[in-house]
Design goal:
It comes from Roseomonas elaeocarpi. By secondary structure, this protein is α/β, with parallel strands linked by helices. Helix content is 21%, strand content 29%.
Length: 663
């Protein structure tokens, strides 16, 4: 049975309610583009080539521009991806475009729109205005869609000329926040030139961890369930109502056994019968690709998850995901007979680290967001104070660092008076912060680098990338130690008896999970096994990398209580850190960490963010060759105290390798 399509206006928030006003859907909602039911294949066999296109993790990157560095950037931008979309459609007329989430947050334009400009009903967000030019069929919600609250999300969705789906997200009353599934009728042309009406079924998913990561915006207003559980609820009925079934999964690809509530569940989703193609995202990686070469069930060359074609199209518009399906129609049904998967980049990097753009930006997309782009430039260039010392993160993973120090200093300054007013002033106050911009999957230019002199808002975004809010947790000294042990998992184990070159950093460990805790002093012994694995599971209970941990000049009292200033992501359980699971929060501050840094600098007028050296690495033998990958620009800045680095040559992706010694 065909239901009436949902209008754009029905996606708007009703009044001042904090949840989206949508009808409950018992199954697939049919969004028809033409009257009548889908045509069945003719008695003889028919073959259709259907091209499915994906953008994902755009994060408000419309322009090929780096607002943090205030310069053009050919590695990002929907305006560039749009040119790839046009070319892909020209190759295969039967092409359908989808978005996989994380749209409205993630660049200074996103913060400008949310905190300075604002959105009222009827307004169209600039990234949405740009997407509206590209004829998207459908989208889903990413975890960062909730960073600015449900009212803002609803208004943003109201500006779309395409719907969004999400099957594992619910309002407080248990009804879907947006439609779980949709079915779109499309007229496709087979290889003989005959037209057929096909029903394209779409289902969407978001990481259930949004309830932790955005607790302040979602608690009491929304709930989530496991991605695979939601798929099993909806896919059987959706499959009966469609000819092709596409999963928009804003979730990454992880190996190992399936775990309920998994953040990266695309591989397990592929085991649910009935899915013809999966769009993935969230991890800011590329699939097919070498990042997934060792995961059982994932074919990193052909682009399949348990045999289902799947693609992950990078981030910030860096790639266009392409899945080509060859559909054969026979006996009243369409089946996938063959497929091809690729992720097409908007640029390439040469052996000498130069960026070569492969496409030009599409003017129609640039024009859609031009006023907001220009307003964002003015916004990020506003001065707020000065720094007397450089602030960079080139060595942030191997030595105490000013880019992290200034965050810790600002958090401590901000929380001190709030803690006293809350009756918590008698407890020792520590501050946890992590380096955000440390290269990695984002490339050799992705480092904080602020020169001495005036500090503008754009520099604050460079220092603190995410729109987190300040939280304070109360933990014991023992939990402080375990918190640091979890953080020390970023280091590979170094064999001091080996003379072969050994990489110090585990490239799969996110730098934002490398917390430095100020207020205590400690050293990290990387010759010992990591106590925790990459997911935060205790795997080496007899190992302790954290040594010489002291507070106020004495060994830390593991029974004593401490306050730790951090952010909502960490305090709510992000990263699975001991002592930070959402249950230890004692202060829920109203301000963004980034805004706290701005206020701190305004108050101080001039800051001197020199690292205080409260942590260091335990030296290894001089014969041990320990290498560290950073930007080539790292060789041009002063080394942190106690660190020596000698160039070892180029590293893949435009990075440089350095031999480290400490002590």
């Amino acid at each position: 049975m065909t239901r009436s399509p949902l209008s754009r206006r029905s996606l708007l928030l009703a009044g001042t309610a904090s949840v989206l006003s949508l009808p409950a859907l018992g199954g697939a909602a049919l969004a028809q583009t033409r009257g009548g039911s889908a045509a069945r294949p003719a008695p003889g066999a028919a073959t259709i080539r259907l091209r499915l296109l994906e953008t994902t993790d755009l994060h408000v990157n419309v322009y090929p521009y780096d607002y943090y560095r205030d310069r053009d950037d050919d590695t990002v931008g929907l305006a560039k991806t749009a040119t790839l979309i046009e070319a892909a459609r020209a190759e295969v007329p039967n092409s359908l475009l989808f978005d996989n989430g994380d749209v409205i947050q993630g660049s200074p334009m996103g913060d400008y729109m949310a905190y300075k400009h604002g959105l009222k009903q009827g307004d169209v967000h600039p990234i949405i205005a740009a997407m509206n030019k590209l004829d998207y069929v459908c989208g889903t919600l990413g975890n960062h869609e909730f960073n600015y609250g449900l009212d803002y999300l609803g208004t943003s969705l109201g500006g779309q000329n395409f719907p969004s789906v999400c099957a594992n997200l619910f309002k407080a009353d248990g009804e879907p926040l947006v439609a779980p599934t949709r079915v779109f009728q499309r007229e496709l042309v087979d290889e003989a030139g005959v037209r057929h009406e096909l029903r394209i079924g779409v289902i969407g998913f978001v990481p259930p961890q949004i309830m932790q990561w955005d607790k302040a915006n979602l608690e009491g207003k929304a709930s989530t369930i496991d991605i695979v559980e939601a798929a099993k609820r909806h896919i059987p009925e959706l499959r009966r109502n469609c000819d092709v079934l596409i999963a928009l999964c804003h979730s990454g690809i992880a190996g190992g056994p399936a775990v309920a509530g998994a953040e990266n569940a695309a591989l397990y989703l592929a085991e649910v019968p009935g899915i013809d193609a999966i769009f993935t995202g969230h991890q800011h990686l590329v699939f097919p690709g070498k990042d997934f070469s060792n995961i059982a069930g994932a074919d990193a060359e052909r682009g399949t998850l348990h045999g289902v074609p799947a693609v992950m199209a990078g981030f910030w518009g860096s790639h266009l995901g392409v899945i080509d399906l060859r559909l054969e129609g026979r006996d009243g049904a369409w089946k996938v007979a063959d497929f091809k998967v690729e992720a097409r980049p908007i640029y390439e990097r040469t052996a000498d680290r130069k960026i070569i753009p492969k496409v030009a930006a599409a003017p129609v997309v640039l024009d859609a967001a031009k006023p907001e782009h220009e307003a964002t430039l003015a916004y990020v260039r506003q001065p707020v104070g000065e720094t007397s010392a450089p602030i960079n993160s080139y060595w942030a993973l191997v030595a105490d660092d000013p880019s992290v120090q200034i965050v810790s200093n600002a958090q401590s300054w901000y929380i001190k008076s709030i803690a006293e007013a809350s009756g918590l002033g008698g407890l020792p106050l520590l501050s946890a912060a992590a380096p955000f911009k440390c290269g990695g999957r984002s490339g050799p230019d992705y480092y904080t680098d602020v020169k001495p002199g005036p500090l503008a808002i754009k520099d604050m975004a460079d220092i603190y990338l995410y729109p987190n809010t300040v939280r304070v947790v109360k933990v014991t000294g023992a939990q402080v130690r375990e918190w640091l042990e979890r953080s020390a998992g970023i280091f590979n184990r170094i064999d001091p008896s080996s003379t072969a070159e050994q990489d110090l950093i585990d490239g799969k460990f996110p730098s934002y999970n490398f917390d430095i805790i100020d207020g205590v002093r400690y050293r990290i012994d990387v010759t010992k096994p990591s106590r925790y694995d990459g997911d935060g599971k205790l795997v080496a209970p007899d190992s302790h990398r954290i040594v010489d941990l002291t507070y106020d000049g004495k060994p830390i009292d593991e029974a004593a209580q401490f306050l730790v200033a951090t952010n909502n992501y960490r305090a709510g359980g992000g990263g699975n850190f001991p002592g930070a699971d959402g249950k230890t929060i004692v202060l829920d501050a109203p301000d963004l960490n980034r805004d706290v840094i701005v206020r701190y600098i305004v108050e101080e007028k001039t800051v001197d963010p020199k690292a205080d050296g409260n942590w260091s690495l335990v030296p290894w033998p001089a014969s041990t060759v320990v290498s560290y990958v950073s930007s080539p620009a790292a060789a041009k800045v002063a080394l942190p105290a106690g660190l020596k680095a000698d160039p070892l040559g180029d590293a893949p992706g435009g990075f440089a390798r350095y031999r480290l010694s400490v002590g």
